[in-house]
Fold each of these.
Amino acid sequence: MYIYDKFDQTIVRERVAEFRGQVQRRLAGELSEDQFRPLRLMNGLYLQLHAYMLRVAIPYGTMSSAQLKKLAYIAQTYDRGYGHFTTRQNIQYNWIKLEQVPDLLNDLAEVQLHGIQTSGNCIRNVTADQFSGVAGDEIEDPRIVSEAVRQWSTFHPEFSFLPRKFKIAVNGAARDRAAIQFHDIGIQVVRGPEGDVGYAIYAGGGMGRTPVVAPLIRAFLPKAELLSYLEAILRVYNRHGRRDNIYKARIKILVREIGAEEFTRQVEAEWALLRNEGVNLPEAEMSRIQKFFAPPPYEKIAAPVVAFEQARASNPAFARWVETNVHTHKVPGYGVVTISLKPVGGIPGDATAEQMSQIADLAEKYSFAEVRVTHVQNLVLPNVKQADLFAVWQQLGKIGFADANLGLIGDIIACPGLDYCALANARSIPVAQQISERFRTPERMKEIGPLQIKISGCINACGHHHAGHIGILGVERAGEELYQITLGGAGDETASIGELLGPGFKGDQVVDAVEKIVNTYIELRQPGEEFLAAYRRVGKAPFKERLYASA
Amino acid sequence: MADENTQVIEPSEISAHRRSNKAAGGKIATGNRLRDGVVIYLAANGEWTTDVDQARRETTADGEAALKGALDAAFKANYLIDAAVIDTVPSDTKPARLREQIRAVGPTVRPDLARRANW
Amino acid sequence: MPVLSIAVGSDPAPINDNWVRLADGAAPNATDRVIVPFARLKGGDNQIFGAAAVGVELGGADQVEDLKPWLDRLSIVVLRFATFKDGRLFTSARMLRQRLGFKGDVRAAGDFLPDQTAFLLRTGVSSLEVSDTFPVDAAASSARAYSVRYQHAVDGLPAAYDERHAP
């Protein structure tokens, strides 16, 4: 993974010093809250219901075991012993004291972590496929370009006060595991006509109150020209994106209002000039970054790995976990382990300091000291030898994270919702807990098959409900929590936006409604047909009929 | 994952247009303490308290104006942020809205962290 | 209002500013250095060029390219922030310098934050019009907050990648 040199380290250190000064000025009354708010937001510091919340960036979801240890330390020292992994591959802490933030950031800086641009109307932490570098279907490790984008976007002097926030995602494989078409810019690594590596560029996607699947605006961009092209998109957006209405300020609205074709024309015109203005990264820097993502020293392992096969044969629970949570590694004899942070009845994405610390130890011991965060709020040990999988699974069992539910109905995304968030209209977490309880048995989950449930507590859609096979949106109606259900959303390479089924449900009726939908699917599916495919075949009518018939 | 800058809402406006359906209840003043973000309420003795049960409850227009005055002064003194006058249920300092009940108690999903028993 | 000059490597310094805003429709004195709204330039009012020096004030919605016909006769371009959130003006400043080659003074005015001084400097702003209570110290610390940058901008300073691969 990428390791800071003195230049990167200096920037982060200088940021801590700058923010320390700003906090002092605020506490001394020299800065008003109106003046301070944008400054703290650009450092990931929000005010939520109960306290300040700090969001720490985990660039493109990759971190070292030492960094995860430090995150555990932060949870223990400055928070209430836990943190929450988010759909942007970040972590947030819920009980932060403003006066302690400068010291906290100083501690983070020791391990090359920070909260820079995890909020505010700027280019946010870039996200990427959590299986980068280890998946077999990859053209190029998307973290190489992600790191280039991270550096370019950090304290960009022209683009730090955009009309709204701006999110970029990169995917390097055929399978889209980064939901790139729901981003302001989605970058897909592709091969060009001559077999050379470049990028397909999508722009203007997003969720929120106006969900949009991003159109493709350029089918092939040469590798060396990425930054000037991004700069052209950002410049067109910065100049022409709407600033009169916060709900219409995202780039998706600009692209929609002027049309993808006209938007592309403007970007290309700007790019024609910008590409010669010294924005592109020199080849030498690109290769320097690339070297950090060279594969770790894998062992040559002969298949089959006998101990692993034996454990799988003799222990059904382990076998089930391997089947659901271990992805094929590009190197024979290794596996990619996804640690589900979705125990039955648990809070999706939450981990205690102790759990983080234990996972860091596992990464240290079994996975070349590397951990990933997924946008589905799970963690990944990317490089585990098959021979070690049983030991890893057992260790995970001890900390309550051995659930075999990846991609199944128990693997729910939920935003913090009204339990924590100042913007939420309804709670999300209790709904996730109830659903995971209802469908708790492995047999039931297996019977249902791949099914993604995503829950947001307000229209801002941090819980990605638009992209859920079953999406749940919490709203407030006459002082009560009410949940609307959408079906058919997808965040992969077949991206689609879920369709609203009908009137919403009260909190105590949501799980029954989900169960009716699940049962309807099971009855109408064809052999081997997954939920999403079945929905796309039959549409919403049968589900709607069943759901509202007896209501 | 929520976005504080998604909406720019004056907290006092929230109470004006989102919590006005409990006319029979009272009003209390709340905010978050600047230095640590802790939820606080104006108490009957004029101090700020973290305990909603100690909050000064007002039922008249003059009383509400006094709450607003105290919030305004504390905001200007850089003592609290996100100031709001919120509705309570009749004859108790229990906030009327679920959102404010959660602020007073803590996340419903973490009873171990609760600041008081739920109502 | 007080004016501070800003430049790479030095603290913001007060300068004796004798620019005046020309009243709507008024003719300038030949000895005056006048700043006019962009609309007056676009209206084809050539009498303003009877002044000793001429400048123009742009808001966030103005397109800097539209200045081209007059640019070589302008000594200052004022960029007025209606709100500090109006990031369009950073683009305007940068394009004025890089795309249009403007060599005169580029001045930020209005509601910008002292903490934005580093970005203003990087995008080619050379002076700040400020209120009497403007915290100059805060602007000074912003200007020297960072010794490393990840991008090329107008200030001509090397990016981290230049320094990494310097011979």
Amino acid sequence: MGLLSKKDAKLITDPLADNNPITIQVLGICSALAITAQLKASIVMSLSVLFVMGVGNVVISLIRNIIPSKIRIIVQLTVVAALVIIVDQVLKAYAYSLSKELSVFIGLIITNCIIMGRFEAFALGNGPWKSFLDGIGNALGYAVILVIVGFFRELLGSGTLLGFKVLGDPIEKTGVYAIGYENNGFMLLSPMALIVVGIIIWVQRSRNKDLIED
Amino acid sequence: MSNKTDSNVYTVLFAIGMVIVVGALLAFTAASLKPTITKNVELEKQQNILYAMGVNENDESSANFVSTDVAPELFNKYITKQIVIQDGKVTENDEAYLIDIKKEKAKAKGDASKRRLPLFIGEKDGQTFYIAPIRGKGLWDAVWAYIAMDENMVIQGAYFDHKGETPGLGANIKERYFMDDFIGEHLLDSEGNFKGVDISKSNADPLNKDKTDNEVDAIAGATITGDGVSAMIKSDLSLYVPYFKNLNN
């Protein structure tokens, strides 16, 4: 790759699959369960986390040498909290109905373990560019799972994707509904997100035996 | 870490500096986005009021507002009159929908006559709707609603919302199956006294066929939210009773 050295590229590609924050490190599960009933909410949540992770990792990395070690966790929290409030305000201003839907979960990005985890484990010890790549990589790894789960839950639960009726109309019985297909309301409930994440973990580990722990 | 960053003085100074920088940044963001956010809240109120009187884009099972692009236009078209009732006196006020019910309720604690009661009068297909905004407490936080009634205080439509009720339980007050149950319910009993609508766990009428029993079926697992909604309907809508009595005389 011309733009990125091999090592840098690994920072982005690793969290996408073999070191995925959700399926391998099992971080950030709570938001993955809560907001994935619709694809749109998953995408917005992913973008919000992408922004917070990318910028947050750079900020922490830039000030890593001047952060007093006694209060470093508080400093990290302040940085995340400030970024999350900015995201929240921007959503309220430009995507109001969506921000109501995501409601508390935007605020809960602060508690998303992926973010604090990457600050502590990576940004505190590496330069801004590497930290930026690490942040983006981990946020993308989170996003991939969110979008996959959101895709299946919306498709099977509501028969729509991003609000479009891709499977036909359940009331007028067109498309697949004409042959007796029904939406599975269970898909819309949080437990199904856990099961979908479980299936992803299963598929991933059966394809890559190295990931299986004894 | 070097020794410099370990000293107490440095730590305190760093903390102070950080708070000032972050505070300034957030204050700037909040101040510059405030007009857009206020506008969104206003549009949402218009959408809620229109929803209650049946101007919405509902399909079979979900609740959908009219889009924000057309909300102000439709609001002007369907809402023919906005009035404010204060201490028995009725005045017309074109910005009654902007009245903050939370603040009015706080004012009424000292002196009930200080509370302004907004009421929106809408016309659709030859029918007149009287839409009242009400507000109360659920389990975790505020719940509020817009109730559309006819001149006999029979509910014609309702929109419920909440700030932080439990998802899947109390939060279901804003689902169609709950809100639609209120349509046709009488707020007065057969003698014309105000009774409100109870969210009942034992009304033996889960399909809500009896519209004059002053009861709708509760949501399982949302007792306190339901009680809050009942209490809100009783306390806030009863204030409008004199207006409706006057209207019919």
Amino acid sequence: MLHTINKSPFDRNSLASCLRTAPDGGAILFIEDGVYATAKGTTFSGDVEGALKNQKVFVLGPDLAARGIAEDKLIDGISVVDYSGFVDLVEEFGTVQSWL
Amino acid sequence: MSYEVNGKTIEHDEEGYITNINEWELDLARAIAVDEGIDMTDEHWEVVNFLREYYSEYQIAPAVRVLVKAIKKKLGADKGSNKYLYELFPYGPAKQACKIAGLPKPTGCI
Amino acid sequence: MEDTETMFDTEGVTKNFMFLNRKAPYGTIYAQEVLELVLISAAFEQNAAIVFMDDGVYQIVKGHDPSVSGMKNFSPTYKVVEMEKEDAEEDEDIDMVWKIIVEKESMEARGLSTDDFIINVEVLGSQELSALMAEQDVVFGG
């Protein structure tokens, strides 16, 4: 199962709700304002690091770039994907849940 | 676009569904039925009244399956069928009966 | 076009759909849109897990009266969801299975209990909800 998160964790509880209920062995992809959760040293970094134990975690590169978040600021273990990588994830994980 | 009934003007949309459900009255229902080419019998009124009661309770029109079941309960198994409802409202019970009952056009695929 | 016909033939095809309601009822259109989707899925006799979590639990609390602000009260329509569920349980000709679920954590965080809801619900903790989510073919969030 693939989860997408498109809102900043500082603005919405989507990240928390996703982490609380996502079945193990899936993937989380951060897009749009969701990418703010992928930087090191935020209040939410610990939660994302915890998620990495049970989920693969991805972030959409163009959305990172748009917001000026350099890849060396990312939490270790998060992989950057481009749009075609996004499509590959959808194909690989089948069921998609968008945490709006 | 509007119907003229008993000296009143009642607005409707391009398909003939009235825009304000509260403006519905019996003579309006009769007028819409004439437009639809339907000769209203007691059996037609049963369906129209059921739709109005259901809408007032649940704020939506029932799915056809729900309607069929309710009619079956009220009028017996021989009348509780899609065929029976289509005989009464040949262009579709949901579309025609809802229009006569003053309900909004049903959404979804029914 | 034989292919087109095959595509739309849903006879005998039953999938597991989860509808994840996470938004409060009147501030945005999400709740109403998901509700409509749920009712449409009934027409196709699909399995449905209708879940209320986060602010979505506010959709089914008793006593809504949005008429004061000129909005339609779609609260009674959730009763139809409950009836569809019961219908599916009683009628042998209907193959679909429906569940109406509230996430325990979300309910408790808002000081609510099942007595506060207009419909009967099954309360699941996030772990149980997670297991159910893993069984779904399609998840609609809103």
